[in-house]
Amino acid sequence: MQIADDLAAQIRAGVLAPGAQVPSESEVMERYGVSQGTVRKAIAELRTVGLVDTHHGRGSYVKSPPPVRRKSSDRFRRTHRSSGKAAYLAEAEQAGHKPSVHVLYIGPADAPAEVAARMGMTAGEKVLARRRRYFSDGAPTEEATSYLPWSMAAEIPELLDENPGKGGIYARLEEHGHALVEYVETVQARLASKQEASALRLSPGSPVIHLVRDAVTSGGRVVEVCDTVMAADRFILEYRIASVSFFELATDRVTGEGCVTGKAPGQLSERSHVSTRLPGSLVGHLSCRTGPAARTCGVADHADRHA
What we know:
By secondary structure, the chain is of the alpha+beta class. It has helices spanning 2-13, 25-32, 36-48, 78-83, 87-94, 113-119, 150-155, 168-175, 194-199, 246-250, 294-297, and strands at 52-55, 59-62, 68-71, 99-110, 126-136, 139-149, 180-191, 207-217, 222-231, 235-238, 254-255, 259-260, 284-290. The strands form 4 sheets. Strands 4-5-6-9-8-7-13 form a 7-stranded antiparallel sheet. It is elongated. The N and C termini lie far apart (45 Å). Residues 1-65 form the HTH gntR-type domain.
């Protein structure tokens, strides 16, 4: 479609800059001599390829690239925690954005059924919830809620603070003897709910990434479940997967810092289980395990998230 192609070319050339409003329907109709229906089809095509967002009553706006690259194999390293910078903030800055975090709620909550199942408790049982919204250049990009056993709040008072301190909640957990050795992430692509679209300022029907992560201790206990919804066009999820079998990782070929015979430390960085399923036209699923226990997981040292 010529109109869509022309507008796309202007966006890619920077004539229509990120955040700029696309010419109104009446302006495009007059410029090209076409009907309103034709203009709407052109704008819909631009939305489909991820170039614009449309807001009811406000018009369409050019999206702001580039997306944030979320590196699963790097973001939870303990070395990052020591710098005191949250994973999202560091990743957004690396992408050239100005990030910020707004805490929405910290306090008691009833454990949702899925969260309770992951943590080995009863649905509705009291948990500590930490809900926040993340921004990039002033625009919301994701909303996340961390759930922890309520007993942790009594044991670690900092978990109730808006700023739990350097290294975030993972640092506080480990300071109190809860050594984190593994993170299990389940990723699903789906359409945003009405509430999610409103919170993230998305067009109706926009795709989101729904990521749920378990933080697992050396004793096998899930001490945190983080439920995150991300605007799909604003993130790239990067997973580094080792090219060795689970059998090799479980045998005595795994030595020292978790390197396999013939591999230097650092080359073997992650043990992952990946599965995909695509019911319908959009929905996808990915499950990935990462963790710092090289001798049992065959992965590099991980841990950090401002939560």
